[in-house]
Amino acid sequence: MAGRIVVGVDGSPSAAAAVEWAADEATRKRARLRIVHVWEPWSYDFPFKAAPRFESSLPAYWTGALAATVDWVHDHAPGLEVSAALVTGAVSERLTTESEDADELILGSKGLGGFAGLVLGSVGRSVAGHAPGPVIVVRRFTPTRYGEIVVGFEGSELSEAALEFALQQARLREARVHVLYAWWTPPFSPHATAYAGGVQEVLAEESREVQRRLDPWQDRYPDVRMVGSAVRGHPIRALSDASREADLVVVGSRAHGSFASACPGSVSQGVLHHARCPVAVVRPRPPHA
């Protein structure tokens, strides 16, 4: 880890919001900021043939756009160390590579050109599902601050990595952490029937268990206020509802085997679709990272 934040840009409004988020994040962490645009030359050959000299002019255009973005960051966050790069290749693969030696990779939620369909399309699913570290997806930048970070937690290694990231973020932002456990069973399962008459008792017990698991984390982060709660419902719905008054939602994510698939039914992907605030998707880094 080299104290570096990477942000992907493509000229879209959400990418601009991601740059602002990334600049503020780098300032808080006293990290360097790297701004990257990934250029896919072949994407301009389909479904239409590019006009003469159109494709050859794009590198010069993006070089200028990146320079203008660096200038904006210098004005927004004086003293921040900033660099920019125009790289060529497949967007998802290059962004994933960029994340390998970065503290965080930050992206906008909807893109133009090479980032078309980000989050809702294959690029966003692939990057969030494969990057070896936190990926933060910023839908839009808002000046409203709630002072709360929401994290999904169920005791697994994945959720513990997400919890640790949430606690680190809360410490930097002087915010509290709302640890959310969603208790959910299929509507026609035997468990759903058995618990139909004692939902409140079950939720109370689950809340106590969540708090018990959080005690060691509170010892490690005594300066961060943590609140744990258990709710009945699907975790995607619960986290999305909690995002309405949160500065950030943090979820864990499993690794996927190839760039061709990205577990469309996962909680992380569902939260990316529906959350009302930026979302951090966190995977435990490999031992050698």
CATH superfamily of the largest domain: HUPs
| Strand arrangement in the largest pleated sheet | 3-2-1-4-5-10-9-6-7-8
**What is the name of the CATH class of the largest domain?**
Alpha Beta
| Residue share in helix | 40-55%
In short:
This protein has 289 residues and is of the alpha/beta class. It has nine helices and ten strands.
Structure description:
The protein is an alpha/beta fold. The protein has two domains: 4-138, Rossmann fold (3-Layer(aba) Sandwich); 148-280, Rossmann fold. Helix content is 41%, strand content 20%. It has helices at residues 13-29, 54-76, 91-99, 122-130, 157-173, 190-194, 199-220, 235-242, 267-274; strands at residues 4-8, 32-39, 82-88, 104-108, 135-138, 148-152, 176-183, 226-232, 248-252, 279-282. Strands 3-2-1-4-5-10-9-6-7-8 form a ten-stranded mixed sheet, with helices on both faces. Strand 6 (148-152), helix 5 (157-173) and strand 7 form a beta-alpha-beta unit. The relative contact order is 0.14.
Architecture blueprint of SSEs:
Blueprint (H helix, E strand, L loop, with lengths): L3 E5 L4 H17 L2 E8 L14 H23 L5 E7 L2 H9 L4 E5 L13 H9 L4 E4 L9 E5 L4 H17 L2 E8 L6 H5 L4 H22 L5 E7 L2 H8 L5 E5 L14 H8 L4 E4 L7
Parallel strand pairs: 1-2, 1-4, 2-3, 4-5, 6-7, 6-9, 7-8, 9-10
Antiparallel strand pairs: 5-10
Helix pairs in contact: 3-4, 8-9
Features:
ten-stranded mixed beta sheet; Rossmann fold; 289 residues; 2 domains; 41% helix; 10 strands; alpha/beta; single chain
